[in-house]
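Most newcomers find our protein records easier to grasp once they have seen one. Sequence and backbone structure share a record, each on its own labelled line. To make this concrete, we reproduce a full record directly below:
***
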Amino acid sequence: MIRESSPDYSVRSVDMIIDTLEFMSAEEAAQVTVTSLCSALGISRNKTFRLLATLEKRGMVEKDPDSG
């Protein structure tokens, strides 16, 4: 019997948010840079800023007041 693969119903933006949070929680350092996120997730700097801005707006991450 040939098994059909199930369709992928995932939402790309939700996947990126979860990947971002997982990366940040796995880092030993208290601070994660935008550059390290871009590199780890393979997404643009602009998109990374937008993801972080959304998470900050929802109170899930905080911007470092000294480094921005």
The two ends are 57 Å apart (CA to CA). Helices lie at 12-26, 34-41, 45-57. The chain has three helices and no strands.
